[in-house]
Design brief:
The protein has a single domain, classed as 3-Layer(aba) Sandwich (Cytidine Deaminase, domain 2). The protein has 3 helices and 8 strands, in the order βαββαβαββββ. Strand 6 and strand 7 form a beta hairpin. The two termini are about 20 Å apart.
């Protein structure tokens, strides 16, 4: 199960909406399973159909995560024209088996659909995504 605070959920959705019509991508770092920081990554593809994280940003982000003793909890990205389900390209690029993969569909930008998955050895498994609502 992946639990996110409303704050980080809202920040992810805000990011993907701001980048629409292109796909957006980012990383969630955590300490003991709780999100510590959200990284808005640059999609160097600038494409509505694919994403690729800027390699320098990715290196700096991963260094910061390691330096802080955090873990890479999740990788998120948007699908601008398809459902919230990993594409074959997403599966091929899923290189962190310990991470959750979050897909946010913007087929209806007024109601983004968000789902989480584990992708291990090419196998997609739906994960429960729980948003911790503000009190």
């Amino acid at each position: 199960m992946l639990r996110l605070s409303q704050k980080y959920f809202d920040e992810m959705v805000s990011h993907v909406l701001a980048e629409n019509p292109n796909e957006a991508c980012g990383i969630l770092a955590a300490k003991s399973g709780e999100v510590a920081k959200l990284y808005r990554m640059t999609n160097v593809e600038h494409s509505p159909y694919r994403y690729s994280m800027d390699s320098r940003e990715l290196y700096q982000t991963y260094r910061e995560i390691e330096d802080n003793g955090w873990e890479l909890l999740a990788i998120y990205h948007s699908h601008t024209h398809s459902p919230a389900f990993p594409s074959q390209t997403d599966v091929r690029l899923a290189t962190w088996p310990e991470a959750f993969y979050i897909v946010i569909s913007l087929t209806d930008p007024s109601r983004p659909e968000t789902r989480a998955f584990n992708i291990i050895d090419g196998k997609i498994t739906a994960a429960t995504l729980e948003i911790m609502r503000r009190a």
